[in-house]
């Protein structure tokens, strides 16, 4: 496992043809077409590269079957393994689109609607596919050559690749999809230009074509050169290379939530005094910031310090940041009560705060004074994706859609244990009397965020009910229970 506990994100994407329609794997009959107007589950493809020949790729559908082409150009998606007809090569074009060539038959894949084939001998517009990443667009960027992470340097106005562990909001990058290409956006809303400078507006010099090599990503600029870390601090900018080598390759990694915890005494939980946890500090520094990592099976949570140590239950109910590996003693259950959280350790006892601020897991129940406020610090820009798609402003109303293939970026503001969510126009979310979430509020309304499991949170309105996507795709604030439609990737 990487030093920061993160895993590289699977390279999943949609492929858009020359008519703006997505390649779709149908659930019945393993048929493929290019008819869908947006990116949903059936339009998501996973790229797998051949272990022996890195030029060869396989395209796996949401059903776990592989795209294949026979000698007559007939295209199917029912192969359950890597056979010869499933082997394709990507021929990347200067505008960012791909041509997919059958390695076995040397023909190109293309077409429209139900008329798809892999029989073209030359590349025309009909054989070109735009690549739309299907992963959550906020991530950490790891340089394969330097084994360091990218971060925003506000004072220098650039992105150095120089940290061992991606920490705090500065390490969060957002991939913005524009006209078939991608921009890299920092947490302060600026875009990376190919000269390494950060710009307030996106444009030609901030747009990059994504290329895949050996399962890693490369970013090609408008001049055909690739982003790489340059100089002693690893400033990210386009170099001289027109072919990607190790210096030009990156992994996108999931960005874990990082939080500060505030006890009932108004003080921050800290390790400033040593390895024992105590709520005794009045300001937020790295010593008061913890990364939350959820165990996928138990849904329990671990808290990691910047030094890479986990909180652990020790003798007599003590909590210390001493563990170097995950174990039962590093796992804590989260119980959300109102806007706060109670933490239960592996001994079945709740964590309570002593008069001197020390945290001990010795209580049989969680009293008011034992609850902690949890402030999420590395999502000032919030992008939410549910089971049907991203949350986005409705085109013609003040409501929000929860089933879109494109996303809007919202601003998250912490306020006294609650959060305010602000749209691109500076107006606030609120829940109206009909239970609809609206986005044109003049004054902020309180919402509570509950980190529930790996990569997902729930949001409650001030009415105590959960925000969820209804079957018609509208975001509502009237959920009575925590269902799958009320869990959001963030």
Automatic annotation (TrEMBL):
UniProt keyword list: Actin-binding, Cell projection, Cytoplasm, Cytoskeleton
Location relative to the cell: Cell projection, Stereocilium; Cytoplasm, Cytoskeleton
GO cellular component annotations of the record: actin cytoskeleton; cytoplasm; stereocilium
Pfam families: Fascin (PF06268)
Location of the Fascin-like domain: 21-131, 140-252, 264-371, 388-490
Single GO MF descriptor: protein-macromolecule adaptor activity
GO BP annotations, alphabetical order: actin filament bundle assembly; anatomical structure morphogenesis; cell migration; establishment or maintenance of cell polarity
InterPro entries registered for this protein in UniProt: Actin-crosslinking, Fascin, Fascin-like_dom, Fascin_metazoans
Major site of localization recorded for this protein: other
Keyword Cytoplasm applies: yes
PANTHER family reported in the protein's UniProt record: FASCIN, FASCIN-2
Family: Belongs to the fascin family.
Protein name stated in the entry: Fascin
Species of the source: Takifugu rubripes (Japanese pufferfish)
């Amino acid at each position: 496992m990487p030093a920061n506990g993160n895993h590289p994100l699977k390279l999943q994407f949609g492929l858009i043809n020359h008519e703006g329609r997505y390649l779709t794997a149908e659930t019945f009959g393993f048929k493929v077409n290019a008819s869908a107007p947006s990116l949903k589950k059936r339009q998501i493809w996973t790229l797998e590269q051949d272990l022996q020949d890195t030029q060869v790729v396989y395209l796996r559908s949401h059903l776990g079957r592989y795209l294949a082409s026979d000698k007559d150009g007939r295209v199917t998606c029912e192969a359950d393994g890597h056979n010869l007809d499933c082997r394709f090569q990507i021929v990347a074009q200067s505008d960012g689109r791909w041509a997919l060539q059958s390695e076995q038959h040397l023909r190109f894949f293309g077409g429209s609607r139900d008329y798809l084939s892999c029989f073209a001998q030359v590349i025309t517009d009909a054989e070109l596919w735009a690549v739309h990443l299907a992963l959550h667009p906020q991530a950490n960027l790891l340089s394969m050559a330097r084994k360091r992470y990218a971060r925003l340097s506000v004072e220098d106005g650039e992105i150095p690749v120089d940290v061992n562990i991606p920490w705090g909001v500065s390490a969060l990058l957002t991939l913005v999809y524009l006209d078939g290409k991608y921009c890299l956006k920092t947490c302060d809303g600026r875009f990376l230009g190919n000269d390494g400078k950060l710009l307030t507006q996106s444009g030609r010099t901030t747009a990059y074509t994504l290329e895949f090599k050996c399962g890693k990503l490369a970013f090609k600029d408008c001049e055909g050169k690739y982003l790489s870390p340059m100089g002693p601090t690893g400033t990210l900018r386009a170099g001289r290379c027109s072919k990607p080598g190790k210096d030009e390759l990156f992994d996108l990694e999931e960005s874990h939530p990082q939080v500060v915890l505030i006890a009932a005494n108004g003080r921050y939980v800290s390790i400033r005094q040593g390895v024992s946890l105590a709520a005794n500090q009045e300001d937020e520094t790295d010593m008061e910031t913890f990364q939350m990592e959820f165990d996928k099976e138990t849904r329990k949570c671990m808290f990691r310090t910047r030094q890479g140590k986990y909180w652990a239950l020790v003798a007599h109910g003590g909590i210390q940041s001493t563990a170097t590996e995950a174990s039962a003693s590093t796992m804590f259950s989260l119980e959300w009560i109102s806007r706060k959280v109670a933490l239960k350790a592996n001994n079945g006892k709740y964590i309570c705060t002593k008069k001197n601020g020390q945290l001990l897991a010795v209580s049989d129940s969680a009293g008011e004074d034992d609850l902690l406020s949890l402030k999420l610090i590395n999502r000032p820009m919030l992008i939410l994706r549910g089971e049907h798609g991203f949350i986005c402003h409705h085109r013609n109303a003040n409501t929000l859609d929860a089933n879109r293939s494109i996303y809007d970026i919202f601003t998250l503001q912490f306020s006294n244990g609650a959060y305010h969510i602000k749209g691109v126009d500076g107006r606030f979310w609120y829940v109206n009397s009909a239970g609809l979430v609206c986005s044109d509020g003049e004054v902020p309304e309180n919402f509570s965020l509950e980190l529930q499991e790996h990569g997902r949170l729930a949001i409650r309105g001030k009415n105590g009910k959960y925000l969820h996507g209804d079957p018609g795709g509208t975001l509502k604030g009237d959920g009575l229970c925590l269902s799958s439609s009320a869990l959001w990737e963030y």
